[in-house]
C-alpha cells in the first residue's frame, strides 16, 4: 500500500484510504447504485475486476437467503481487514469484543500447578463435582429422514476421481459463492508479499524438565494448548451439563491483520496442525512449519491436476494467487491427493429437520462414539478425535467440541480463524484456573442455535481413521 500518496476519502461516508484500489473497492461494495456495479481496476495495474453477481444457487459456501442485505458486503469497522455481510456485521463485532475480554475476573488459583496436555493437573484426573442432570443418551435431536448433499459444488467420495467433464456443462461460480473478490485475477502485490513473509516467529528459551535448555517456536497467529483451558472453563461453568472435546493436539490458527477472507485455508492449517502434533499417518507430508496459504493453493491446484474434485477448477476459474473463497471440496481434494483419508457430509434443511439440528446430531454422534467411556458423573469428556472442518455460507470454522447447557440448548465449540486468541486465554496457558465468569471467556468459542439457524446448509469434513492409497 502506497502511503506516500495523499489520503483519499469516500464521497459518500467517512471511509478513507491511501490506496485508490481500496477506495474504489469500498465504494463498489458499500455504496452500490444498482445491481450491476461498475468494475474496478486493480491498484497494481492488473485487469479490471467484474464484481457483478451473475450467479445464484447453492454452493460450497452454502447460502440460505439471497436477499440484497445478505449479499451486501462491508469492511469491518474494527479494521481487522475482514469483509463481512451487513447481515452478519453485528455478530462479527460481538465476537471482536469477546476476543479482547479483560482479565479482571480471572484468578489463577496456583501458578505453581501446571496443566497437562489432557487439560488436568498432574495431581488428579478431574471428574466434575457437579453431576450432569441429563444423560448423554437422553439428548435427542430429530431424526434425519432425508439428509442429503446439496446441489452445486458437491465433493467426491473418498478415493475416487472425476471423469473429464465438458466445460459447457459446469456453472461458473460468482461473488455469492467465492466472495467479494470472485473475479479478481490476482491478489494485490502488498498482500502476496505479506503472505509470503508469513506471521512473525519468535524463538523462546526455556528450561526443560531434564534441566536442559529447550527452544520453543512461537508463531504470532498460532496458539497451541487452548483446549486444556477450555476444559477447565466448561467444568467451572454451572450452565454446562456436559461437554466433549477433540484431541488437545491442535493449534488455533487465525488470520493476520489486513489479511481478509482466507478462513478456508486457516481451517486446513488447523487440521494439519492436528496431523503434525498428534503424529497421525500423513504427518510426513507436513514437515516443519505449517504450509502457507500460497503453498496450500499450489497443493490444491496439484490435487485438481491429479483428478480430485477437478470440477472445482472450472467452477472457480482457478485459485492460485487469488482471494477467492474455498471450501470442503478443496480441503478434501488436498487431503485425498496426499493419501490422507477424509469424509465429507452435508446437511440441508427440509420438511423433516433443520440443517443445524442434523448437524448437531452428527457431531454429538461423532463425540459419543469417540469417547472412551460415558459416565453420567463426568461432566467434561476428553477424546483423541481429530477436529472437524465446518463450512456454511460465506465462512468456515474448526469444530473442537460440543456442549449441552442446563436449559436444554446445545453449542458447537469452535476455533474461528477470523478472530485471534484473546489476551485472557493467552495469560491462562498452562495454569490451573478459577474464573468467576467462565461463560464470558467461552463466548468466543461457542456457536449455538441463534448463530446456526441463519443457515440452511452446512458441510463438514472429518479426517478418517484409515488413510487411503495415495494415487499414482
Protein architecture, described:
By secondary structure, the protein is an alpha+beta fold. The chain has 2 domains: 1-51, no CATH class; 98-192 and 222-463, Cathepsin B, Chain A (Alpha-Beta Complex). The protein has helices at residues 20-30, 68-71, 89-99, 175-178, 189-197, 227-236, 263-277, 293-305, 311-316, 328-337, 355-370, 423-427, 438-442, 449-452, and strands at residues 8-9, 16-17, 40-41, 48-49, 73-75, 83-85, 106-114, 201-207, 213-219, 222-224, 240-245, 251-253, 342-348, 380-382, 388-392, 395-405, 410-415, 431-435, 446-448, 457-463. The strands form 7 sheets. Strands 11, 13, 14, 15, 16, 17, 19 and 20 form an 8-stranded mixed sheet that branches. Strands 1-2 form a two-stranded antiparallel ribbon. Strands 3-4 form a two-stranded antiparallel ribbon. A hairpin with a 4-residue loop joins strand 16 and strand 17. Helix 8 crosses helix 10. The longest helix is centred in the last third of the chain and has 16 residues, at 355-370. Mean pLDDT is 75; it is low at 32-70, 102-160 and 163-167.
